[in-house]
Amino acid sequence: MVKLRLKRFGRRNRPFYRLCVMDMRSARDSSAIEELGFYDPIEKDQAKALRINAERAQYWIKVGAQPSDTVRSLLRKAGVLPPATAPAAKA
Prior knowledge:
This protein is α+β, with helices and mostly antiparallel strands. It has helices spanning about 45-50, 55-60, 70-80, and strands spanning about 1-10, 15-25, 35-40, 50, 65. Helix content is about 25%, strand content about 35%. The longest helix is centred in the C-terminal third of the chain and has 10 residues, at about 70-80.
């Protein structure tokens, strides 16, 4: 199965992540099928903190790639995925 997930770069206490399309059996920092963008959690300016190629991300989701929980929230923040809906309350 193909997943959208993060690869960690940067030094200790200064993380930097690349959003990648990878086989789920591969290691976290191994080679990726395609790199779609990056995420810098330390950056104050949100416009510079997250860059995603939305067109390619939508393509990979359309062909069946599953985003990790963190990537899913980043895609929602970037506007690639629709916002999460609250589950319906039971009567």
